Amino acid sequence: MAAQELNKSAKAAEISINGAPSDGQLVWPFEGKAVAQSPVKLENSGGDATDLLVSVTGQPLVPEPAWGTDYSIERQVYDLNGNLIDPEAVPLNTRVAVVLTVRALSEAPGRLMVVDRIPAGLAIDNPRLVRSGDLGGLSFLATIDQPDHSAFYEDRFEVSVDETRFGGAEHTFAYLARAVTPGTYAHPPASVEDMYRPDRRAITSTGTFKVLGPTR
Q: Could you tell me if 36 and 85 lie in one domain?
């Protein structure tokens, strides 16, 4: 029914693209390079106002810095003794604990989805959340033992939490991983987002993860 209404609206609208009638078309895709060389002219030829939505997709030229609205998120990597380690110098086969800390910067609770995208060269070692007391060196972690949802994939770790149930302004999650392939890899940002208000979100900065090869 929604699609039928969209089709009716498109047929009723009188939109021209570079002087040519659209004939009820709903979507017009344009390549960035083509638009840069020759701007596109959209005109409403009808008598009624018409809303148009412009969406832009693509890859940033430079990595985004850390930022957030209503939330902040931090990612740190520890060894199993609880010591911070440099993610740009991790020996092959080292087991690490990746710790994500989400902080609320407002008093409005949300239903949060936290996603940590795993760099190539690192693999999740144990598909469950680390709980307080699992590892002696990481006993300081106040991890949430029973979030609403947690999932472990080859390329990312996900966990969701309803702040109205857990309360508090800070949530910490941790999972175990292992450095499996030598090389230098981009470490995508971790993110947190209010699932029902996506404008309330935050990301970490993009980093580098380097797995050192075996010494000879």
A: no
pTM over 0.70: yes
What is the tens place of the pLDDT at every residue in 32-52?
888 889 888 888 877 778 788
User: Could you write out the DSSP letters of every residue in 87-148?
Assistant: TTSEETT-EEEEEEEEEESSS---EEEEEEEPPTTEEEEESS---TTSSGGGTT--B-SS-S
Q: 77 and 24, same structural domain?
A: no
Angstrom distance (rounded) from CA 14 to CA 23: 8
- Residue 190's nearest CA partner among 131, 122, 124, 118 is 118
Counting the structural domains of the chain, the total is 2
